Amino acid sequence: MSSGIVRPHLALAHEIPALLVESKKSTLGPVIVNREKTRIAFQARMSFAAVTLKRQRIDGHVVLARRLASPRFRRIETISPRNHDHTFRLISLDDLNEEVITWLAEAYQVGEQCHL
Least CB-packed of 10, 58, 96, 110 within 10 Å? Predict the structure, then answer.
C-alpha cells in the first residue's frame, strides 16, 4: 500500500477529534482516541464512534440514541432501543462536513451516556 494513499486518509481520521471540539453545534468534553490495530475509536465514557482506514476511503460508524435517516448512511443497525449503529463512508476531507460533525456531536452525547 502506498504511503501516498494512506497519509491523506490517516490525516482525515485525525481531523475528527479536533472538529468535534471546535464544532459550534455543542460544547464537548475530552475525547479519548483509541488507536487499535484495525481502527481508531473515539470514546467519552463509552465508545461513540470509530473509523477503519481502507485503501482509498474511511469506513466509520456513530452510535446514536435514535435511528436517523440519511442517504449517507450505508446501514443502520439497532443494538438496543436507545443505541443505533449508523455506518458511513468518507472518501475525502470534503465528506467531513457539518452533517457528519452533527452526527459526531450527537454520538458524543451517547458516549457520555446522557441518553440513559
Answer: 10
